[in-house]
Amino acid sequence: MSAMTRLRWAMRSKVWRWIAAFKFSTNQDLDVVRLNKDQRLLKAVTISQIYPSITINGVLVGERTPSDEQYPRFRYVLRRVFSRLFMLLNRLYPPMLSGLPSIDPNPQTALGLAYTEQHRQAVAKAAKRHNKTAKEVLEPPVLPLDLDVNGSPDLGGLAVRGPFAGYLKKSDADGSFEWDLRHLGEYQPRPGLFRLGARVTFQLEADTKRLVPVTIQSEIGLTRPTDPAWPIARKIALCSLSNHTSLIRHWNWVHLIGGEAVSIVTRNTLPEQHPFCRLLWPHVFGTQASNRLCTESQLVPGGDFEAVFSYGHEEMYRLFSDTVRGFDVQAWDPEAYAIKRKVLHAGFATPTEDNLRALYDVMHRHAARYLAIYYGNDAAVRGDRAIREWVAGLNRALPNGLPFTSAEVSLSQLARVAASCMYLASVQHELVGTFLWNYQLWTYVLPVRVYHDGRRDQLDVYQRLVNTNFMLNTPRAPLIADLTGLALREASHPERYVMAVQAFETFKRELEQLQESMGREPWMPWKIYPKNLEININA
Questions:
Q1: What is the enclosing helix (H) or strand (E) of 61?
Q2: How far apart are CA 93 and CA 520, in angstroms?
Q3: What integer pLDDT is reported at residue 29 of this predicted model?
Q4: Residue 123's Cα: distance from chain center in Å?
Q5: Residue 71 neighbours by CB distance under 10 Å
Q6: Is residue 114 a contact partner of residue 443, using CB atoms and an 8 Å limit?
Q7: SS3 of 151-196
Q8: Distance CA 398, CA 327 (A)
Q9: CB 280, CB 444: distance < 8 Å
Q10: HEC secondary structure over 119-138
Q11: Is 286 helix (H, G, I), strand (E, B) or coil?
Q12: How many CB atoms sit inside 10 A of residue 514's CB?
């Protein structure tokens, strides 16, 4: 790298680190109990109607940001101005610079050069703003043991612990356990990169009760652990998981499809004074404003996704469009999803599934307790027109719909889908998004690109990956919060207000108890802790 290129990169990287640090340190919590719902119908439109350059088919988003999400107005205007300036700067002075060398071969050195004092100072400022310690807000990335066991990733460990556990399933074809992302092979990556798409098969060891990888099918053929090509095949498989998790499971399925649908349908069908609206409101509020802000920095041509991951924007949009039909609402119910994938009681431990189920169960108990205040039986639920319209709206908005219709919805089903909506906005959003902080930055084992010539990522690609993941960790509205301000006051039923307050208090207490219980065990990077969860999808 020439002296001039080195100088240009030093200036450019510092500017973009400052932008990431500024956003991180100045973000403020949303007031999730302020319910002053915009009464206008929120129309769902194709994403290209708002952003003509984003040619994704089959995804509908809100046509505008509701007025309640523009409060306080001055802060909202500042955020919009900052977003516009961000987009302009991205065109005029982009964070990418041609001619840069690869990152340092030592992963700790590479991370140390990209995660700098600017980031740490931003964490300290955010901690002060949120009345927390810097350690409580964000620690530097920790390398999970499963990513590096004697210099190699443990695929069997990653199959049951961490963000990729949800990909494991039992094959209907041969009865083996597998990760199957072969469909990614249909999409052309950037020049010089291996085509993604892989199927990893696992064998259950009888003595250790562990899953052990036995084959990987990828662009380079069928490989086994003893083959010389195994390390490359393994990188292709892990790169496929990394790309699919960030692009499809996080952005397409959580933000664009799930988050948008629940937000729009809840706003359009549930009146502000409806008790079910009060239950869901803190988990949907902020979705529209957040998705719009993030789309402008990540999904547009030249945005974070195209700059970091393996695809140019045209192929990426084709991938988004094609994976709409693969959306599965059961992913918001960890037990149901694990049963569907046939990984429960299959002879091996499922620590991540256990972790997710414990979190979901708190939300399910909360939803069931709260709904029992207002509905005594199934007939009462089906007799509520707003509830029927909400269920019918989700069945229309979500690809493949819900497991039941509005005509047959029961109290127990309503409690479960309500818990699923809470889980989507907090746990699922964390699992496939913010949670990658301790995984995705170790690109020597979990790459975002796999080059034919074996090179490491260039400095600009890695710096943007670090900055993007850093901003995902911006402190927001916590899940463990006082929600009693949402309890509905009814002149005809004053006792229900008291019971609703108690329900919200119990929800908070049970989350705190789960956190306390988990805190007595050794901290693990693959665990999701209640104290780290946000209450909704917001930026």
A1: strand 60-62
A2: 48
A3: 82
A4: 21
A5: 14
A6: no
A7: CECCHHHHCCCCCCHHHCEECCCCCCEEEECHHHHHCCCCCCECCC
A8: 8
A9: no
A10: HHHHHHHHHHHCCCCHHHHC
A11: coil
A12: 18
User: Rounded to an integer, what distance in angstroms lies between the CA atom of residue 49 and that of residue 496?
Assistant: 44
Instruction: Compute CA distances 291 → 60, 309, 424, 434, whole Å.
Output: 12, 20, 15, 15
Q: What is the pLDDT of residue 150?
A: 86
Helices 351-374 and 411-423: angle between axes, nearest 10 degrees? 130
Question: What per-residue confidence (pLDDT) applies to 1?
Answer: 76
- Block means of pLDDT (10 residues each) for the chain, 539 residues, are 90 96 89 95 97 96 97 88 89 94 97 97 94 94 95 96 98 92 98 98 95 98 98 98 98 98 98 98 96 93 97 98 97 97 96 98 98 98 98 98 97 98 98 97 98 97 98 94 98 97 98 98 97 91
* One-letter amino acid of 323: T
- Res 74: pLDDT: 85
Token pair recorded at residue 350: 């499922």
Alpha-carbon dihedral sign for residues 478, 482, 485, 490 = positive
Sign of CA dihedral 512, 517, 518, 521: positive
CA atoms of 481 and 483, how far apart (whole Å): 6
Which residue spans within 186-233 are E strands per DSSP?
Answer: 199-204, 211-218, 221-223
- How far, in Å, CA of 519 to CA of 517, rounded? 5
Cα radius of gyration rounded to whole Å, the chain: 23
For the chain, what is the total number of helices (H) and then of strands (E)?
21, 7
Residue at token pair 């989700």: 394
Instruction: State both tokens at 104.
Output: 């340092």
d(CA 27, CA 297): 16
The reported pLDDT for the residue numbered 174 is: 87
Phi-psi category of 257—alpha, beta or left, where left has phi over 0 and alpha has psi -120 to 50? alpha
Please state, as a whole number, how many other Cβ atoms lie within 10 Å of the Cβ of residue 230: 17
Q: Can you give the pLDDT at residue 123? A: 97
Whether pTM > 0.85 for this model: the answer is yes
